[in-house]
C-alpha cells in the first residue's frame, strides 16, 4: 500500500508534531558556493527561498509545535534572520558549542521537547534537502506519525531513480499489519559501489536513506540511553546547564564536549529493534553535489541548467552558475562550471562528488577560500574585502538599520572610515561623532571605537586599514550586544 492510499488513525494536524531542523555541516561538495562560513542551506539554490527557509516552511502546519533548530553557534543570527524573513518568529534556536554529529544534536532537541511533552512526535529533518512534492511528503508523514505513536523510530525510504553511490540504502522488510504503508527495516546499507547500486535499483526492496526521522521524544531518548549512554548523559547535562541569551539556547560547552561524535544512524537506527521505514516518492534530494543540482534545475533544449550572468554556445548537458562576473562556456559537454567573486570551479559531471577532495586540498594549503567567502556576514550586516596589499586593506562595510558593531580596539592597525550611503554614529574614545555621506573619520591605532547605524536605511562605508597586521583576530571586544567573545 502506498502512503497516499492510507488514512491515518488521527489527522496529524490535530496531534503534537514538533519539526526539528538540523543545520550543521559545510556542504563542501557544493563548493565554491557552499563553504563553512556560509553553507548550502543558507543559499537560494532552487527558488527565491533558501533551503533552510523551504525546510522550515514544511513544518508550518496547523497544530504543529514550535520548531526546534539545532545549529552551529556562528550561524545563529543568520538562521534567526532567514526564519524571520518567511514569518517564523517562534523557533527555538539551540546552539551547539562544537559539532558532534547528528546523535547528540537530536538528543538535545529530544530532551528540550520532552521537558514540555515526552510523547510529542519529533519530525527530524536536515536543513539542506529538497522536496519536489510536498503533498506526497505529507501523506508519507501521516503514516510515519502513526507508526511513531506506536513506539517505532521511522525513517523515509526514497524510491531510487538511478544507481546512486552517494547515498546510504535501506532494505525494506515486511509491512506492519497495524500501520499499513510502514515496513520493518531489514537492514541499513552503507553507500554502495556502482555495481551494487545498479543491483539495488532493480530490486524494489532497496530504498535511499533520506536521513529524516519521525519518533516520539521519549522513544528516541530511551534508545539513545540504551545504546549510547555517554551521548545521553553528556547531552542531558548540557541541556540542564544551558544558558539563554537573546532568542538562543546555548548548550553547556563543558558537558557537550564530552559527548561522542556519532551519527544517529550508527548510534540508534542500525541497532534498534524499533526501526521502521515508510517508502516515499516525493522528489527528495539532499543536493549533495552539483550534478544533483543539475538534475533538479530546469534545463534548456540542450540539457543545460544555468544561473546568473551566463552565456552558452554549443554546450550540452552542463550546469553553469555565476554569482559574480559574466561566465561564457563554448563547445563542451557534461561540465559543471561555478563562478563566485573569489573562486572558479570546473568539473566533469561524473566527478561532481570529488569536489570535496579539492576543498580538502585547499584547506590543507591554508587557503581562506576553502572555508570563507569574500563577503562575510555578521549579526549587524556584512563586510567584504575590495583590495588587499602588504600593509593596507580596503573593505566595504554594510550595517543594517538600528544595528551596531562591538565596542573594540586594535593593537596593530589604524582605520579610516568614509561614509558613502546613510549616516553613522561613531564612538572614538570619549567622543561621539555623527558622520554623514561623503564625510570621513580617522581611528588611530589603539583607539576604542564603535560604529552604529541610527537610521532607517543601510549604512555603507569604505574602510581603509593600515598597519603591519590586518587579520580579523586583531579585535579586542570591550562590549558587544551580540554576546560574542
Automatic annotation (TrEMBL):
Enzyme nomenclature, EC number:
2.7.7.13
Tell me the keywords, alphabetical order.
Answer: GTP-binding, Isomerase, Nucleotide-binding, Nucleotidyltransferase, Transferase
Q: What catalytic activity is recorded? A: alpha-D-mannose 1-phosphate + GTP + H(+) = GDP-alpha-D-mannose + diphosphate
Q: Which Pfam family, an example, fits this chain?
A: NTP_transferase
User: One GO MF term, please?
Assistant: mannose-1-phosphate guanylyltransferase (GTP) activity
Q: Which domain of life is it from?
A: Bacteria
Q: Which GO terms describe its biological process?
A: GDP-mannose biosynthetic process; polysaccharide biosynthetic process
Keyword hit for Nucleotide-binding: yes
Q: Which InterPro entries match?
A: GMPP_N, Man1P_GuaTrfase/Man6P_Isoase, Man6P_isomerase-2_C, ManC/GMP-like_b-helix, Mannose-6P_isomerase_type2, NTP_transferase_dom, Nucleotide-diphossugar_trans, RmlC-like_jellyroll
Q: Any idea where the Mannose-6-phosphate isomerase type II C-terminal domain is?
A: 366-480
Query: PANTHER family from the xrefs?
Result: MANNOSE-1-PHOSPHATE GUANYLYLTRANSFERASE (PTHR46390)
Under what name is this protein listed?
mannose-1-phosphate guanylyltransferase
Which source organism?
Gluconacetobacter tumulicola
Amino acid at each position: 500500500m502506498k502512503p497516499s492510499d492510507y488514512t491515518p488513525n488521527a489527522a496529524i494536524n490535530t496531534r503534537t508534531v514538533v519539526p526539528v531542523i538540523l543545520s550543521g555541516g559545510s556542504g563542501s561538495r557544493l563548493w565554491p558556493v557552499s563553504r563553512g562560513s556560509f553553507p548550502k542551506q543558507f543559499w537560494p539554490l532552487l527558488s527565491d527561498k533558501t533551503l533552510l527557509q523551504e525546510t522550515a516552511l514544511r513544518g508550518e502546519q496547523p497544530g504543529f509545535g514550535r520548531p526546534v533548530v539545532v545549529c552551529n553557534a556562528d550561524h545563529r543570527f543568520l538562521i534567526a534572520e532567514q526564519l524571520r524573513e518567511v514569518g517564523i518568529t517562534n523557533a527555538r534556536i539551540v546552539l551547539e558549542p562544537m559539532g558532534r554529529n547528528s546523535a547528540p544534536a537530536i538528543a538535545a532537541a529530544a530532551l528540550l521537547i520532552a521537558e514540555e511533552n515526552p510523547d510529542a512526535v519529533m519530525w527530524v529533518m536536515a536543513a539542506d534537502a529538497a522536496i519536489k512534492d510536498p503533498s506526497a511528503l505529507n501523506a508519507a508523514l501521516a503514516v510515519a506519525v502513526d507508526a511513531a505513536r506506536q513506539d517505532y523510530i521511522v525513517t523515509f525510504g526514497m524510491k531510487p531513480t538511478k544507481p546512486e553511490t552517494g547515498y546510504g540504502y535501506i532494505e525494506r522488510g515486511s509491512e506492519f499489519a497495524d500501520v499499513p504503508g510502514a515496513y520493518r527495516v531489514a537492514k541499513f546499507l552503507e553507500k554502495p559501489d556502482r555495481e551494487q547500486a545498479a543491483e539495488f535499483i532493480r530490486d524494489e526492496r532497496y530504498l535511499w536513506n533520506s536521513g529524516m526521522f519521525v519518533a516520539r521524544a521519549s522513544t528516541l531518548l530511551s534508545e539513545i540511553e540504551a545504546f549510547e549512554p555517554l551521548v545521553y548523559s553528556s547531552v542531558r547535562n548540557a541541556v540542564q546547564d544551558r544558558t539563554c541569551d537573546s532568542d538562543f539556547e546555548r548548550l553547556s560547552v563543558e558537558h557537550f564536549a564530552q559527548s561522542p561524535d556519532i551519527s544517529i544512524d550508527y548510534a540508534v537506527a542500525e541497532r534498534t529493534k524499533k526501526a521502521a521505514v515508510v517508502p516515499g516518492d516525493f522528489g527528495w534530494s539532499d543536493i549533495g553535489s552539483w550534478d544533483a543540482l543539475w538534475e533538479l534545475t530546469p534545463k534548456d533544449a540542450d540539457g543545460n541548467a544555468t544561473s546568473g550572468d551566463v552565456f552558452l554556445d554549443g554546450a550540452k548537458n552542463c550546469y553553469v552558475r555565476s554569482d559574480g562576473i559574466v561566465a561564457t562556456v563554448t563547445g563542451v559537454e557534461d561540465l559543471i562550471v561555478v563562478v563566485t567573486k573569489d573562486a572558479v570551479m570546473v568539473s566533469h559531471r561524473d566527478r561532481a562528488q570529488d569536489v570535496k577532495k579539492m576543498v580538502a586540498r585547499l584547506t590543507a594549503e591554508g587557503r581562506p577560500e576553502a572555508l570563507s567567502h569574500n563577503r562575510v556576514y555578521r549579526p549587524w550586516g556584512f563586510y567584504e574585502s575590495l583590495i588587499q596589499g602588504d600593509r593596507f586593506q580596503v573593505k566595504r562595510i554594510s550595517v543594517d538599520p538600528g544595528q551596531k558593531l562591538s565596542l573594540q580596539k586594535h593593537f596593530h592597525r589604524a582605520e579610516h572610515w568614509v561614509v558613502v550611503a546613510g549616516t553613522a554614529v561613531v564612538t572614538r574614545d570619549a567622543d561621539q561623532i555623527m558622520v554623514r555621506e561623503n564625510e570621513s573619520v580617522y581611528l588611530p591605532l589603539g583607539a576604542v571605537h564603535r560604529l552604529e547605524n541610527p537610521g532607517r536605511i543601510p549604512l555603507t562605508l569604505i574602510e581603509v586599514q593600515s598597519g603591519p597586521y590586518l587579520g580579523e583576530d586583531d579585535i579586542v571586544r570591550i562590549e558587544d550586544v551580540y554576546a560574542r567573545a
